[in-house]
Structure prediction request, 719 residues.
Amino acid sequence: MNKQFNSSRRKFMLTSAAISGGFALGLQLPVKAQDAVTGNDINIWVQINPDDTVTIKYARCEMGQGSMTSAPQIVADELDASWDQVHIEYVDVNEHFRMDRAWGAMVTVGSQTIRNSQEYLRNAGASARAMLVAAAASEWGVPASEINVSNGVISHAISGRESGFGALAAAAAEQAVPETVTLKDPADWHIIGQSKPRVDIPPSVDGSQVYGVDVELPGMVYASMATSPVFGGSVISFDATKALTRKGIIDVVAIDGIAIAVVADNWWRANKALAEVEIQWDTKGNGEVSNETILAQFNDSLAASDAAPMPNNTGDADQALANAEQVLEADYFTPFLSHSPMEPMGATVRITGERVDIWTSTQSPEGLVGEMVNALGVEEENVYAHRVQAGGGFGRRGGSSDYARAAALIAAELPDGTPVKMLWTREEDTQHDFYRPLAMYRLKGGLDANGMISGWKARIASGSILNQMRGVPLRGGVDFTAVEGFTELPYNIPDQFQDFKLTPTHVPLGFWRTVGWSQTPFAREQFIDELAIAAGEDPYHFRLKHMAEDELSRHILVKVAEAIGWDETPAAGIYRGIATTEPYGSYTAAAVELSVNDAGVINIHRIIQGINTGHMVNPDNVIAQLEGATVWAISAAMWGEINIDQGKVQESNFHDYRLLRMAQMPVIDTVLEATGGFWGGVGEPGQAPILPAFCNAIAAATGTRVRSLPLKHHGFSLA
Prediction:
């Protein structure tokens, strides 16, 4: 690097926000559900303005999931604001750091935004309401207990006095923050549970939304980069002579010894010149890795004797299987998958003295700041992370900020104050991802004389995201993100044994939408169908027989079955599949109606998606998430795979890493249940039951059980 950074740390005092003529609420709130929270657990969420408008701060990241609308709905309801009064703005990342991470964990992953923050968001709204009431009581000289707040109006029926929020804001700011507040009974919610238009939709439609790729700054230069085609490889040498002769080329730089970037006056020129840089790569011995070697490794793992047992094992599975009337055994396979969001990886970085400014789409602003600190050796208070929307993430923008690190290292080689936008090609994005792990499953089940499952064994072989990406030691040798779906079966099986065999490869792994739940139900719920058929039972009713102790799983399964008319005979040539899952604190089920012609062309006639989230904030948003999850699941089922040959990813763009086309979108009906008592996730759970329900329907239609994905390898296509 040609810049020098001073490592002295400036200290910041904790300060309160000051709003002229209004107030910002700062309050001490417990953040019980967020184990990763550091700092003082002080949250500043609500700003009330003189014109009666209410600004609610949004701390997480919007990337199409709609939480930028639903999270503020929670605050607004407890505040008793009028939704028409509410404006929403991002929390400033730098203010967050200066105030000892006042807003808690900012990362948006694992369907946590609502379920892990609802308590302190409700408290924030309720506390602001209490302070407004106290101000009104003091000013009007009446008991606070006689004051009502409704739809943005504070009133006292006996005296006939009333006021908007704004007129009392200054006085409310003088009130003590209540130590405790009484939260509303769900029966009294008037904004939670209502479908409110998403605040991010208008700018997304009219083109005014600024995504990471849209950032433009005066004096900006552009960079395109190439990373070793073999994971783990590094640069031996490079010759940029030819590239540097091209028009508009500013520089060619090495990044971390593992990549080469070309900087130019526009991105097209940078990318064209990159192809003319002659690079010699050291593959670190991974150039011989292929699909065949990886599969051989995983087959060995299925037969290994040193797998780690899961903690939920009960009874004696081996004895139960030995005594069973029937025993079934089946192996299942799911491949590596790429995230491939519509917005490819990229970032804009400007380094001015000790200050680092960065604009990028991220699911983890805190992680982004940490990446800048690590890459450049600067202090975190000198990193200014500017919020922009993400054009999709699905986990890719939450687990690693490698793309931002690359942009920062390029900027460090440029003259002081020069902003550089580094943008990956789609090919670079597809071939240098952090992939969903490849996994194999070996299942064994026994049926007793009554057709009930008497014994169950499961072996899961997979890499570990936690260990490989984050270096986290595995508890008891098990990566619980890889075995989601097997750790707590919804079925009453008295004797079961399950274990996990860690199977690492050179392929980098990351959190892919729905994580383990994106693939484990493919094996689990298909095997339940196989056991049902062996028992001579209907797959739906077979499940119900084994779910007497899981009322919530049973409830959503019944609702979905009723919605598709499971007990009614479908039209000739139409077949159905069903599945149930319980991911991320919610309970989900899906049923699929389809037909398959003699050429293997699948026509999906109807899909029923059901979810019980306990409490539901924005039903329209839930529907959108279920529909999007369906697209994700069907795409993975039909075409999704990342293949390795000579250590390299073979897929490159959407022509060979296909997604569902608009014309192929199936009819989706949704069953929304909010039975109360808990807060479940939304963004990830909808995908979990679709894949197995789809494959169960194909098996019903064809009589052939597909135990490995994608379906294109089994002669199937989609109408």
Q: What stands out?
A: The chain has 19 helices and 28 strands.
